[in-house]
Amino acid sequence: MFGGLVGRVPIYTHTLDVYGYELNFCSSEALSLGAKDDEEQWIKAVRQASQELDLRDLVGDNRAMIRMPSGSLAVCEALAWPKSQVVLAVPGDVLNDIAAEETASRLADEGFTIALHNPPCDLVELRREADFVSICSVDAQKLNGFRTNWVAHHDQNLHLLVRDVETPDEYDRFSKLGFDYYEGMFFERPRHLHSCEIPGNRLAVLELVARLQNPKVDIAEAEAIITRDMTLSYKLLRLINSAFFGVTKKIDSIRRAVIFFGVQRIKNWASVILVNSVDYRPRELLTTAMIRARTCELLAERLERPNTELYYIAGLFSLLDAVMDVSMEDVLRHLNLDDSINEALLQGSGPIGEVLRAVIAFEHAEPRELQGFRFEPGLPARAYVESIRWATDARKALTVS
Q1: Domain check: are 154 and 205 in the same one?
Q2: Domain end among 120, 154, 188
Q3: Is residue 350 domain-shared with residue 204, that is, in the same domain?
Q4: Quick check: 195 pLDDT over 60?
Q5: Residue 173 CB contacts under 8 Å (≥ 6 apart), including other chains
Q6: More confident: 157 or 78
Q7: Count of structural domains within the chain
Q8: Rounded CA gap, 376 and 311, in Å?
Q9: Closest Cα partner for 267 from 229, 301, 313, 228?
């Protein structure tokens, strides 16, 4: 198993559907030292990952973007992943290096999609000088009036991607300008950072989640809460009897489901269904939250932490502020969660916060945030990839139910 770590960050279309994921890498050496790889070690990690990890487990049928240094483009031919799924993002200065430009053009001919980052010329010149480029990628903070005028002139064969979009307001601005793809932390942040009124439909969901997650709720109460909501009970039974759970005998009542799976597991899945019922964008938020939940749970188990279900809940609710579009303080005010979960979600502190911070670092393959952990070889990649696969299958089952 790959001993380093591969993280992923979503890249969205203008409708906030997923175009693909930017993959981030670090080597096993970087993980153990808590330090960034040098270029040679990083390239080695990318090659090893492509040989030992199935790209479908990481990105499904979507695209995988890899940011390659211009001097290392030749190694891309040795990548084991399908070329048609890989987007190679290369620095704009590749156009100033004849050898690197020829390599990028050859890679495009071989089937890779080429994205040019922060090009030194305008789009008209780019199409004339480098017709092998399919995506023009620009940092949000480096955009100026000249470059934003490009949007009106780009053709359908050259797509524009804006990176490091930090806030929903920034996304709105670039969306109005007409960019094709968007990447950044904006999707994890609510629009309303200060206290505000939660819309009635979302408040109703939040209150039902609060009742379910009350630690004092026993089997009979959990059954009563779920069965009172006919839509929730119907969807929960559909989900439980789906291929995802693999039950051999049909479960035809909430009581039997609670007895079979345990009250906390049923409460958690009912909460997932409720969150999924909220009208929010992007829908990828729930997938990310489920990946965090599962990875937190797996790490807590491997680290032999008590009450692993609390780690799962912290991961699952870590993006609830973005789903509900209010601050995390406002969300937690309506929930009756364990203090250790509140501490983790608000300050990232305590044992649960420590693991949640590590899982978020997995997404960016950021070794400096993982100092102090003594993971067994291969555990970070194994846990993260398993969680992606698990969450992807769960989302499919939720769609059917």
Answers
A1: no
A2: 188
A3: yes
A4: no
A5: none
A6: 78
A7: 2
A8: 20
A9: 313
